[in-house]
């Protein structure tokens, strides 16, 4: 007979940061509809910021605690805590970007902020999931609000097209993930990551059809999550969706979706499948070669196609694809025995650097964008150093950080990712990463050339309102501080633990 779990059995304190955010989003919807007038939606924005801050404080109280919640479907550990920090900072900066943008573009509606909070909670649950079913539910909680947000600038046809493309392809990706999870369940008899790990051991020892089912299932799961993080060949939606969506939404999804997707992928490969080999005695996981080939293809396509772009949002879209390739290098490194935690650490540090840098770059793009959505070409940056010198300087730093120049956060992220690849003996992949970083310098430095070395009056950056400026300042501070004082970020990940190490 089925027994109803008690509150103590659920152990909800372990999942408190995500639960607080989800409940806060529900309450915000009600408060916005019932009590906040249409012309005072800025109040909704500040309430959403308060909910994010409150969740951040709760996360500090649960930091580094280890255990499970919801009958083992949720895992709390230092990886969860660090990922939550990155996700909540992403949400805080993104909400700041939207306060004035929604008003000046005529799309200010209170549900916008609730959708961001729901998506943030989905990201947090993806980072802490200990079960494939939990990952799927969290993936949908992350994705469905993003489909709506991408199409939020109605009746703009480009925004509507963006939302529709994202929704259709996202539904296909979800179907792949579910089918892959079903095959993994068929092979191992469970969807819980730690139980799958034990099942993999038996499959490797016994051989037979179970290994085929597990290989096929894990491949389909990669397809589902690969779409979310935009790696090749699952990247096709990215440029069109990024260009058509409202710019702050593009900024939010370019960072947040990657954090959630890679966090779930890292949990799966390092907890459930680290010892999945096709021949007994091998020390390299069966999926590693596939992952490093995908990483290499992503680095090459993302960086080379970005060169041809003339729109800043499309350029940053292909840049985002390329950066997914760098993070994928760390995921591939996790396939070598004994490098799981080191690979996760490298991926987390890269995500922190990417979060500050990319949000800052999109913030500057928002500042020069016009109310009708125009003003997003690379030519619009010509002469910006003359009209807005401080903003041009910050944009230059963001571009150098995305390139991976020393004394910026991007350099620290790439240093650890390349180191993880070399320790895993993925030398060809590391070489490709270095060479494509050189290629990326061309299109990033082109922005700096436009701002400083080409004649022009410069855009007045009418979109650089108070809250947008604060968002850019926070991103700039994070980029510089992590670049100059990297130990502030690396110390955070020094004692990294995964639930698998305490739940065996």
Task: Summarize the structure in words.
The longest helix is centred in the middle third of the chain and has 32 residues, at 157-188. By secondary structure, the chain is mostly helical. Strands 1-2 form a two-stranded antiparallel sheet. It has helices spanning 7-10, 16-35, 42-61, 78-104, 111-128, 132-150, 157-188, 193-206, 209-229, 238-244, 247-272, 288-306, 312-333, 340-368, 384-387, 389-403, 409-423, 427-452, 466-484, 487-493, 500-503; strands at residues 67-69, 74-76. α11 packs antiparallel against α14 (340-368) and α14 (340-368) runs antiparallel to α19 (466-484). The protein has one domain (11-503). It has 21 helices and two strands.
In brief, what are we looking at here?
73% of the residues lie in helices and 1% in strands. The protein has 504 residues and is mainly alpha-helical.
Sequence-ordered SSE layout with sheet pairings:
Elements: H1 7-10, H2 16-35, H3 42-61, E1 67-69, E2 74-76, H4 78-104, H5 111-128, H6 132-150, H7 157-188, H8 193-206, H9 209-229, H10 238-244, H11 247-272, H12 288-306, H13 312-333, H14 340-368, H15 384-387, H16 389-403, H17 409-423, H18 427-452, H19 466-484, H20 487-493, H21 500-503
Antiparallel strand pairs: 1-2
- State the major sheet: 2 strands, antiparallel
What's the helix count? 21
Strand order of the largest sheet: 1-2
Give the mean pLDDT. 87
């Amino acid at each position: 007979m089925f027994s109803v779990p008690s509150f103590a059995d659920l152990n909800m304190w372990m999942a408190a940061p995500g639960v607080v955010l989800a409940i806060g989003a529900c309450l915000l919807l009600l408060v916005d509809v019932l009590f906040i007038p249409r012309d005072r939606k800025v109040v909704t924005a500040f309430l959403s910021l308060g909910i994010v801050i409150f969740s951040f404080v709760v996360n500090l109280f649960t930091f580094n605690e280890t255990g499970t919640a919801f009958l083992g479907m949720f895992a709390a550990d230092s990886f969860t805590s660090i990922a939550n920090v990155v996700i909540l900072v992403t949400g805080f900066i993104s909400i700041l970007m939207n306060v004035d943008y929604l008003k000046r573009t005529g799309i200010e509606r209170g549900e916008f902020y609730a959708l961001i909070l729901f998506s943030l909670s989905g990201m947090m649950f993806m980072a802490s999931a200990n079960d494939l079913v939990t990952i799927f539910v969290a993936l949908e909680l992350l994705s469905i609000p993003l489909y709506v947000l991408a199409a939020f600038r109605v009746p703009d046809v480009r925004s509507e097209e963006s939302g529709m493309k994202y929704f259709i392809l996202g539904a296909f990706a979800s179907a792949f993930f579910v089918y892959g999870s079903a095959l993994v369940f068929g092979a191992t008899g469970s969807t819980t990551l730690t139980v799958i790990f034990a099942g993999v051991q038996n499959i490797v020892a016994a051989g037979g059809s179970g290994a085929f089912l597990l290989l096929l299932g894990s491949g389909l799961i990669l397809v589902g999550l690969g779409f979310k993080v935009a790696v090749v060949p699952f990247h096709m939606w990215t440029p069109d969706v990024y260009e058509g969506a409202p710019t702050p939404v593009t900024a939010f999804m370019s960072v947040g979706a990657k954090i959630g997707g890679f966090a779930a992928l890292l949990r799966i490969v390092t907890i459930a499948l680290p010892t999945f080999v096709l021949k007994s005695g091998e020390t390299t996981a069966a999926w590693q070669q596939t992952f490093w080939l995908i990483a290499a293809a992503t680095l090459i396509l993302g960086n080379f196609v970005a060169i041809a772009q003339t729109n800043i949002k499309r350029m940053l879209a292909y840049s985002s694809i390329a950066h997914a390739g760098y993070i994928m290098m760390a995921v591939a490194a996790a396939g070598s025995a004994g490098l799981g935690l080191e690979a996760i650490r490298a991926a987390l540090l890269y995500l922190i650097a990417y979060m500050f840098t990319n949000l800052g770059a999109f913030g500057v793009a928002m500042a020069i964008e016009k109310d009708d959505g125009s003003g997003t070409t690379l030519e619009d940056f010509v002469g910006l150093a003359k009209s807005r010198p401080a903003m041009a300087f910050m944009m230059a730093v963001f571009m150098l950080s995305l390139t991976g120049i020393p004394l910026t956060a991007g350099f620290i992220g790439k240093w650890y990712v390349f180191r993880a690849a070399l320790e895993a003996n993925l030398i060809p992949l590391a070489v490709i990463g270095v060479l494509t970083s050189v290629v990326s310098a061309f299109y990033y430095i082109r922005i700096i050339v436009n701002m400083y070395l080409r004649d022009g009056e410069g855009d007045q950056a009418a979109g650089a309102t108070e809250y947008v400026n604060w968002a850019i300042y926070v991103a700039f501070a994070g980029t510089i501080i992590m670049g100059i004082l990297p130990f502030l970020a690396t110390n955070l990940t020094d004692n990294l633990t995964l639930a698998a190490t305490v739940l065996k």
